[in-house]
Structures are given as structure tokens and as C-alpha cells.
Amino acid sequence: MRHGKKFNHLSRKTAHRKSMLANMACSLIEHKRINTTVAKAKALRQFAEPLITKSKEDTTHNRRIVFSKLRNKDSVSELFREVAPKVADRPGGYIRIIKLGNRLGDNAQMAMVELVDFNELYNPNGAKKKKSTRRAGRKKATTEENVETPSNNEDDAKTNE
User: Fold this and answer.
1) For residue 3, pLDDT beyond 90
2) Residue 5 lies in a domain
3) Are 52 and 101 in contact (CB under 8 A)?
């Protein structure tokens, strides 16, 4: 019976599985987005999210814990230097898995794994695209600049007084 055994072994021995997940996590930290199978993506999320949580508090102890899992000094420094400040206010869920369809060769389900705060398309706090309207008779941008210029000058005149 397999009661309570929820760990996905991914058809690999322990050392191979740990090395593979460490390499995938390093690639994810470096490139911010990778493509892999759905099963590996879910295993990677369980592996990498606690490490990102550890990186929020930059202490020597946390760096050593993360380094013992990742085994790549450059990835650890990038995680603590670049990724941690972006996810500082997020309470969890740092990784997004987007299913892509099946692979051509063996029909395996593929997924894109990405760090949530590094995608500008889905990030609501990122740079927003200017909303376009379809109203007829709207003035052109050159006339709007001319209209805005006198009001700015009036504000400047009021501040000078």
C-alpha cells in the first residue's frame, strides 16, 4: 500500500533526481523561464518555492541552506540579489506553471515554468499598456501637447508667486 506517499520519484534514483531538480532550479533562477514536462514542473515547484522563501531573509545561514540544495554559487547570489527583492511582499506562489500541449516526439505533456514577478504580461504591478479608445473626433497628440503646455505654465506661475 502507498498510503501518504505523495512524493513523485520521476522514475529516477535519489541522487539523479536531486541533481536534476537542482539544475532545473538554477536554470529557472538564471533565465526566469524554462520549458519542461508537467511532472517535472510540479516537482520543481515543490523544490524551488521553499528556497525562494528562504532567500527573502538574507542571512549567512539561509545562504548556506540554499547553497546546499542548489550547489551553484552564481545561482544563489542571483537568487538573493535579484529574485528575493521582487518577491519580498508575496506570501507564496512564486512559480507559475503554464501547460503548453504535448511534445511531438513522445507525446509528453509540456509546460512552461516561470517566476511570477518577472513576467511583464501577467504582472499587474508592471508597466501598464496605455488604453486605446475608439471614439470619433478625438484630438491628436500634437494638439494635446499644446493644450497641456499653457496649464503647466499657469501652475508654474502660481508656484512662483
Assistant:
1) yes
2) no
3) no
Number of separate domains in the chain: 1
Answer whether 27's CB lies under 8 Å from 40's CB. no
Give pLDDT tens digits for 91-140: 999 999 999 999 999 999 999 999 999 988 876 665 555 556 676 766 66
Domain encompassing residue 59: 14-118
CATH of the domain at 57: 3.90.1030.10
- Give a yes or no: residue 124 inside a domain: no
52, burial (CB in 10 Å: exposed 0-12, middle 13-18, buried 19+)? buried
The answer to whether residue 146 sits within a structural domain is no
On whether the CB atoms of residues 21 and 39 are closer than 8 A, the answer is no
Q: How far apart are CA 19 and CA 10, in angstroms?
A: 12
- Per-residue pLDDT at 121: 83
**Which bin fits 149, alpha (ψ -120 to 50), beta or left (φ > 0)?**
alpha
Q: In whole angstroms, give the CA distance from residue 143 to residue 155.
A: 19
Q: What is the reported pLDDT for 155? A: 55
Cα separations in angstroms, 143 against 11, 111, 125, 135, 147: 66, 48, 31, 16, 6
Distant-in-sequence, close-in-space partners of 63: CB < 8 Å, separation ≥ 6: 76, 80
